[in-house]
Amino acid sequence: MMSRMPLIIIALLCSYPTISLSTESYPRVAALSKAEIDTVKMQAKQGNSASLVQLGDLYYFGRGVNHDIAQSIKYYQKASELGEPLADYRLGGLYSKGRGVEKNHKTAFEYYEKAAKNGLLAAQMRMAFFYEKGTGVERDPQKSLEWYKKAAAKGHSQAQYKLGLALANGTGIKANIPQAVAWLERAAKQGSQLSNVYKNKLQDKVTPQALAEARSQVEHEIHAQISQI
Prior knowledge:
Elements: H1 4-15, H2 34-45, H3 49-61, H4 69-81, H5 85-97, H6 105-117, H7 121-133, H8 141-153, H9 157-169, H10 177-189, H11 193-203, H12 208-227
Helix pairs in contact: 2-3, 3-4, 4-5, 5-6, 6-7, 7-8, 8-9, 8-12, 9-10, 10-11, 10-12
């Protein structure tokens, strides 16, 4: 028989929208002067991977150059070949959305995976989401949770929220309410309102001693994850 606690969490999940990672893969890109663009082009020509990505961004948005997604892809691919994680993340976004290329979630996953393994936080979140939903890869809650753990250890509030829910529900991991509260309160401190709601629902069920131990365990988990980065 299901305990009252998971029922509370499931009810909350039905009451609040799930987090989506549909936000744009690009930051706001400001227009540069001709001299600045020439400098970026020169550095890109010299094989500077960051400049290659920046040039790709300029062509993607048409900032100071003609809007040309094909050109942006060319520069991202060159940067990717040089091992630039942000370029892989950009390419993953293009394949995920089908912009300038045929939509292909499997290819998007492969680019995100490459960027994630090179430590890019945003890509690690995409990996967690793709494994969670089975997008471009077979659904795997445990692998999803592994990536959420990495991102949570780096302080990503959304990852901390997802990890807290997984621990509360026992999704891909053994249920642990004290640790769930410890992760949710971290996300809540960063302004996550949903995390605060869940934390408040669970906190009364946890003794102060159990919560203190859970906080210590979470600190240990964070240090363990960061040491692997």
